[in-house]
């Protein structure tokens, strides 16, 4: 019996390759592969071969992975969550050789400070819109240059999470302010993303509730009428959002591509989507009384 265990960490991580729904008539988009992490940790991997949904959404291959373990008996605890989709095509108009979402999270031992995160290995390779090359300009804080290579992605738990949790809130605020300052931002986008900057400016606690940012600051290869920040508006198709990160006080989600379709085909779809969180029990170690 492990009598020296003072805290237990309950892991939670999940990864899926594709998903969503279409309307008129309503039907779900099946998920080629999806995995979830045991609350005790462990490691799970699933792969899927070519996927074709109604000749609308294609993927040559997809891969999902979750793993979690303690570094020492009483922490810290680490998690890795990954989702990769290769050979992606949406209606033949949005294509990418590879979309990869990946997070490494470290939950410190009691008194070890805020949890830390890394998005090392996340990428979008050879993105094209209507055959035109589009280059995502990645956020240097959330995804530094040294974390963008294929070698980083291929390593497993060797990445040391470096970003403290509050950094994510700060990045979200900066991106929201930048969007609102753009002369080309659409009214719907101002309504959709403006609350992030407004919340910060209102004096509310920046680590309360949730917020949203993106690994993508902007997209080269498109006009300002087509794209501002991390989103793209495509006539007769809909809206595409890239590298979206949703941040909660103790959890994070990352979706490398999300589509809001509004044409002959209507619905929502996500590609390479992951989530990771977890909690210690008890939440903090109390010193014994006298």
Short note summarizing the structure:
This protein is mainly beta and 290 residues long.
Structure description:
The chain is mainly beta and 290 residues long. The protein has one domain. 13% of the residues lie in helices and 50% in strands. It contains three helices and 21 strands. The strands form two sheets. Strands 4, 5, 6, 7, 8, 9, 10, 11, 12, 13, 14 and 16 form a twelve-stranded antiparallel beta sheet that branches. Strands 1, 2, 3, 15, 17, 18, 19, 20 and 21 form a nine-stranded antiparallel beta sheet that branches. A hairpin with an 8-residue loop joins β9 and β10. α2 packs across α3. The longest helix is centred in the middle third of the chain and has 17 residues. The chain is globular. The two termini are 27 Å apart. The C terminus is likely disordered.
Topology of this structure?
Layout: E1 8-22, E2 27-29, E3 34-36, E4 42-48, E5 51-53, E6 57-59, E7 61-70, E8 77-90, E9 94-107, E10 116-118, E11 123-125, E12 127-129, E13 132-138, H1 150-154, E14 163-164, H2 165-181, H3 187-201, E15 211-214, E16 216-220, E17 227-228, E18 231-234, E19 238-248, E20 251-262, E21 266-281
Antiparallel strand pairs: 1-2, 1-3, 1-21, 4-7, 5-6, 6-8, 7-8, 8-9, 9-10, 9-11, 9-12, 10-14, 12-13, 13-16, 15-19, 17-18, 18-19, 19-20, 20-21
Helix pairs in contact: 2-3
Question: In terms of structural class, how would the helical and strand content be classed?
Answer: mainly beta
Number of helices: 3
End-to-end Cα distance: 27 Å
How would a crystallographer describe the biggest sheet?
12 strands, antiparallel
In percent, how much strand structure appears in the residues?
over 45%
N to C succession of SSEs:
EEEEEEEEEEEEEHEHHEEEEEEE
Q: What is the radius of gyration?
A: 20 Å
The counted number of beta strands is 21
Number of domains: 1
Mean pLDDT: 87
Helix content: 10-25%
User: Which word captures the global form?
Assistant: globular
In terms of per-residue confidence, which ranges show pLDDT below 50 for 5 or more consecutive residues?
201-206, 286-290
